[in-house]
Specification:
The chain is an alpha+beta fold. The protein is built from 26 helices and 17 strands. α12 packs parallel to α19, α15 packs antiparallel against α16 and α15 crosses α19. Bound molecules: adenosine-5'-diphosphate and magnesium ion.
Length: 726
């Protein structure tokens, strides 16, 4: 009998919501208590050292070596007051995880004693032997050193007993081996170019930052069920499982009341997140059963990216206390909604203005339109690169399937805003000057934008990239992604677009045209040029796929093909011009993604092979034997059995058993062939074309067997259990 499954089910039934000790204080009292915030720095650092950190933060100044000693001493004093005994440089290598290597604060002395040690040089630079982090061939083993260096724009924090210092991670030869390095560079470029354009409207603007508010979707599953499903435990998704008779058809989960056990878990991890300065605010049920969402208030993009990485760690850790496992995979269950991570993105100035928010007067609204249209244009020109920034083996299953945006990048602006762009297109003359009346009329129209947007409630949830009143929401990002990847691309393409815009406007101004009119003219040309990327209709429909093709928009479904845009001549030119990533780094990133793809498919294929041979076939054969016994018994009693249900079932069982067995053999052969290929690109393609399709084909037959075989004998928890039990 299928004891593992039934033991697991029994365990889940007996679970209780785990009461956690709720603190007697309000969140405002423990928010950021484990973070080395500015207030804490003022307390623990000298004035001079504090100022140096602030300058590094705001103006990008270097931290002086001598001062680094003071900062290290202050940071250590604060951290030990918080109970820390170790410290680590905390960074985001390209495998998508976060990395830490803990070192104790103390060092033994010669006479057998120990002194507590953490110096300035250990703060600002470390040399982890990190030769096993993915590097796309950048670091040969003989130069296995990578450097991690403190990023003073993201504050240090204490997690458990460890002081974590956010750092960048670069190779001995200076190439970025992480997400943070290019992210910081892209933010710097966005700042520089956006400031120049913003100064057309307000000379007081000296700094522009990008904001990011992420919405993290995830599934929860009880740990007992999780362990009874080797596919979930090893690959993060189910490789088999027939659809549950009921899943999300009734849409009764979304925004429903949060189950008690889940609510206890949420409260618990949110409290840890708040203590670490992550401003979590929203929690709710998502569309699929056992699917949930967590979202904080938006923050400066670099900090928001760190916080998203950090909350993933916290969620995983706290889940253990509640006997849950968090599924961050984009598509853990076939046929029900997958999980995304909406990236809400905007730009704001040191003068407190959101550049993607309409203002109170025509001038402010022209500024708003300038940044809006330039973003549209940037996405139009680099849609393939933006698409490449969000691909992953998991997201490949999600995009274009049950309630997820398709692989086509398009932008939704809303009807009213679209009408406004149409107005500009019609009213602004190409070269002849506008009359005073024409200008006034246009400005009056623009003046109306805020009111229009306020009651503009149309929200298109089917668009991968939607304007939502004061920000763009990039919805195609996968739940397990590091937000830095899409943010690097978005910041860079908008920075480059603003740079080009400035050049064009200045050229027109030089011919004697007034500034506003020059801006209008360029915006008009962009509105016309970028039209194809704007789509207001249903992005989930088949008509859109056809329409997009007519418009010349690409629809690259498969990861191995989509990632090529990283090394297209346009992408290389863009990133090199901005000094965000060079050709070598881009090629390395491509190679790392190919490698990840290969490994993931390889693991899935092996796990499925094992499941078929060790679980599915033996179970199906046992059931077959019972039927055979039954048929023999009936025969011995001379009961007529030809074409009976029993024999039909025996035939079906044989068919599916044979099919899965044969296909597993073929799949292993295909893998062997693919493994022999040296070239990474060809190997990835072989895995994509020759190995990957078996996963679906084999699954089809397993799922059929699941329907036939006696439920009591089926060894693995079924969809109805995984999705509904908690
Ligand atoms: P939704 O209706 O899409 O679920 P929410 O109100 O939950 O929207 O907000 C989603 C995220 O968008 C939150 O993290 C929120 O802080 C963020 N957000 C709101 N305004 C901005 C903005 N101007 N720039 C960036 N993010 C923003
Ligand atoms: Mg949203």
């Amino acid at each position: 009998m299928a004891t593992l499954r039934f033991n697991a089910l029994e365990k889940v039934i007996s679970r209780q919501a785990k009461e956690i000790t709720t603190p007697s204080t309000k969140p405002s009292q423990y928010f950021s208590e484990m973070v080395f915030t500015r207030a804490k720095m003022q307390e623990y650092l000298s004035k001079e050292a504090y100022q140096n950190v602030m300058d590094a933060n705001e103006k990008g100044c270097k931290i002086d070596r001598r001062i680094a000693e003071q900062i290290a001493a202050g940071m250590k004093a604060w951290a030990t007051d918080k109970g820390a005994t170790h410290y680590t440089h905390w960074f985001h290598p390209l495998n998508g995880a976060t990395a830490e290597k803990h070192d104790a604060f103390f060092e033994p002395t010669e006479n057998g004693g120990a002194i507590e040690k953490f110096t300035g040089s250990l703060l600002v630079q470390q040399e982890p032997d990190a030769s096993s982090f993915p590097n796309g061939g950048i670091r040969n083993t003989f130069e296995a050193r990578g450097y991690s260096a403190w990023d003073p724009t993201s504050p240090a924090f204490v997690m458990g007993k460890t002081l974590c210092i956010p750092t960048i991670f670069v190779s001995y030869t200076g190439e970025a081996l992480d997400y943070k390095t290019p992210l910081l560079k892209s933010l710097h470029q966005l700042n520089k170019n956006a400031v120049e354009v913003a100064q057309y409207f307000d000379k007081n603007v000296t700094k522009v930052i990008a904001n990011l508010g992420w919405e993290q979707e995830y599934f929860l599953v009880d740990e007992a069920l999780y362990y009874a499903r080797p596919d979930l435990a090893l690959t993060g998704r189910t490789l088999m499982g027939h659809a549950s008779a009921k899943d999300q058809q009734l849409e009764d989960h979304y925004f429903g009341s949060i189950p008690e056990r889940v609510a206890a878990y949420m409260k618990d991890f949110e409290m840890e997140a708040l203590r670490l300065g992550i401003p979590v605010k929203t929690r709710h049920n998502e569309v699929a059963p056992n699917q949930f969402e967590c979202a904080p208030v938006y923050e400066e993009a670099n900090l928001a990216v760190d916080h998203n990485q950090l909350i993933t760690e916290i969620m995983n850790k706290v889940a253990l206390r509640h006997h849950f496992r968090v599924l961050m995979h984009e598509k853990p269950y076939k046929g029900v909604n997958g999980s995304g991570k909406h990236n809400n993105w905007s730009m704001s100035t040191n003068t407190g203005v959101n550049l993607l928010s309409p203002g109170k007067n025509p001038k402010a609204n022209l500024q708003f339109l300038t940044f809006l249209v330039n973003t549209v244009m940037a996405v139009y020109k680099h849609s393939d690169l933006l698409r490449a920034s969000i691909v992953s083996p998991g997201n490949e299953h999600r995009l274009g399937a049950s309630e997820a945006p398709p692989s086509i990048i398009s932008i939704f602006l809303g009807k009213q805003l679209s009408l406004h762009l149409d107005e500009i297109e019609q009213r602004v003359p190409n070269s002849s000057k506008m009359s005073a009346d024409e200008k006034t009329e246009l400005k009056l129209d623009i003046g109306k934008i805020p009111e229009i947007l306020l009651d503009n409630t149309d929200r298109n949830r089917t668009s991968p990239f939607a304007f939502t009143g004061n920000r763009f929401e990039f919805r195609a990002v996968g739940s397990s992604a590091n937000c830095a990847s899409p943010m690097i691309v978005l910041n860079s393409i908008v920075a480059k677009q603003l740079k080009d815009f400035k050049t064009e406007v200045d050229q027109i101004i030089e011919t004697g045209v007034k500034k506003d009119e020059a801006i209008f003219r360029v915006l008009k040309s962009y509105i016309i040029e970028s039209k194809a990327i704007r789509f207001e209709g249903n992005g989930y429909s088949d008509e859109w796929v056809k329409e997009a093709e007519k418009r010349g928009l690409t629809n690259i479904k498969e990861m191995v093909n989509a990632i090529h845009s990283f090394v297209s001549p346009e992408s290389i030119a863009l990133f090199e011009e901005l000094n965000v990533l060079n050709k070598r780094e881009l090629e390395a990133r491509l190679e790392i993604r190919q490698e990840i793809f290969i490994k993931k498919i390889q693991i899935e294929s092996r796990v499925l092979g094992d499941l078929v041979l060790n679980h599915v076939i033996p179970t199906a054969i046992k059931y077959q034997n019972i039927l055979i016994e039954n048929v023999k018994g009936l025969e011995s009693l001379s009961i007529k059995i030809s074409r009976s249900s029993q024999t039909k079932m025996l035939e079906k069982l044989s068919l599916h058993i044979n099919s899965v067995e044969e296909m597993v053999e073929e799949m292993v052969e295909a893998r062997k062939k693919a493994n022999a290929i040296e070239n990474m690109e060809d190997k990835a393609k072989a895995y994509n074309v020759e190995v990957k399709p078996f996963l679906e084909k084999i699954r089809y037959h397993i799922d059929k067997l699941e329907l036939i075989v006696d439920d009591e004998m089926w060894p693995l928890p079924k969809y109805r259990e995984l999705l509904f039990m908690r």
